[in-house]
């Protein structure tokens, strides 16, 4: 989402392309060298942050094969939309550009995301901006979504879920792929992927991608460039991976949504971002109201097996990002921007750029002892973030300023954690314990808050039991505590208190050849939870407030049924209650206890389903359905804040034509989104303000709301040629 410290960085595209062409040349000489140990040794690289089947943790694994049929240009949150308790939305309305996800009502700043065990969340905003990694799904091996506190991981605390993404594993055989897709709203994606295959212990993979979309919303265009490269050295006991990936995004903003109810009915694609009135009184739109950001990630991973039962993982990483978002501002004060007035004139229209220039680097490590009954892991991480925040005025009505920097701030953060995880089998009973100690050191300054020099020390214990009743049934119980530091914006909004979560989970898993079922009950109790107020700040980012005590309680049911070899049905449902307790609100000038109110953006019912048919060999048809019940966009249960329920269905078609003569296969894919052309909004905002009438003693609270319309029926179609 457009955040005050947008991550935008200048890409070195020419250098990247040159490197990739060198790798293409190398790959043409590679020899195929299959290694049976490749898969097993790759799996241990992610064991530090992922839950295992024997752990009493609620999770869902998603393979690259499950993602592939719908990977036609839409972003990762949209690809995960049909998982349990997940709700997704997108600014541009069609899944390309800025996209977001919530899990159990918790937004992206409360979902811990790691890439190969390395934190991806922005250190200060704690948000996850997948738009900075265009087409990253094409370079993923698998994804694990843990719901609740889950297992210990690096980075921001998991206050609703954690997502671990593993990048492309070593490939035994040389390959190349060319994938192209086109669709509604001028959407197109072009991807080139190739790999050398294993040759004398070495192997390399690379990808370059370009995505463009005009967006469903007016002018909400996206121009995205992404890349991925890894080089692997693999022996029986060692794997070393050097990985580089990143992207450059340029998007026209659509963060304002729609407040005008008439436009919501009759002009749903209207976008007020960049709107201004010229000297003649005509409404115009600034054509460069853009977000422009470049982000590059570098990782070096080393896994070593020392003996039958011992292994270690060490990773060092560096992420660099720089970019800005540009805005047209009407009637701005020269004084507010530290500019001299012009001939007695004190206000002006101007164009400003708000920059973020940051570096993030550090190391993670773990050592693991594993036998048939015992699994012990000791690990940790140390990471540093250095962020520069500054603003520039690049144009005014009257002159182009020479000294144009109107603020210059910083935010530096150190994050250190240590953990021990242990799992012990006693007959049919598995006992799990996970102890983490985390320290956060944050220094920052801003024009909106006093200088910060805060230290947070958190102890995050987790424990659970998993009992195998028989070959088909097991039950588990889990308890975990998580603590979380405030974000930079929380300091600006006066809500800079750390949060605490007590998470209780109780589940049952049933597994047979034709059916898998996971039933999980959860209770998440919060202290000082930062809940979304529903309001946005001046750059479209959501505002949070401490709610005192609150809770989320519910039931999740996830299943896969295979009645026939040609039919798969995978329904899931989440039923929940999400409440602020004794919530206070100042209405009409009076502070009032509203009692228990609904937590904003927390629907009580979320249903997903995937029906897949395999009518003939290599042909697959899937109907994907998502229902999200009515939800409140604020915390005071106001009717004005209601976001209506919606039920959306997508149709996915995939056919693989095997050739094996130079070209191995050609895969044809089609995706028809919102096939019933449902009119709906998956996100919005709600705000209140006090209005004083002519008598200063009368205060009236005014309410307002806005919505983010999503596209009606639309399509994507692609062809993937594999060599």
Architecture overview:
This protein has 723 residues and is mainly β. It has a single domain (13-564, 577-604, 629-646, 661-722), classed as TonB-dependent receptor, beta-barrel domain (Maltoporin, Chain A), CATH 2.40.170.20. 6% of the residues lie in helices and 57% in strands. The chain is built from 6 helices and 41 strands. Strand 2 and strand 3 (99-103) form a beta hairpin. The longest helix has 15 residues, at 13-27. The model is unreliable at 1-36 (pLDDT under 50).
CATH superfamily heading:
TonB-dependent receptor, beta-barrel domain
Helix amount: under 10%
Classified by CATH, the class is Mainly Beta
β-strand amount? over 45%
Helix count from the secondary structure assignment: 6
Structural class by sheet pairing and helices? mainly beta
Condensed summary:
Helix content is 6%, strand content 57%. The protein is mainly beta and 723 residues long. The chain has a single domain (13-564, 577-604, 629-646, 661-722), classed as Maltoporin, Chain A.
List keywords for this structure.
723 residues, 6% helix, mainly beta, 6 helices, 24-stranded antiparallel beta sheet, Maltoporin, Chain A, single chain, five-stranded mixed beta sheet, globular
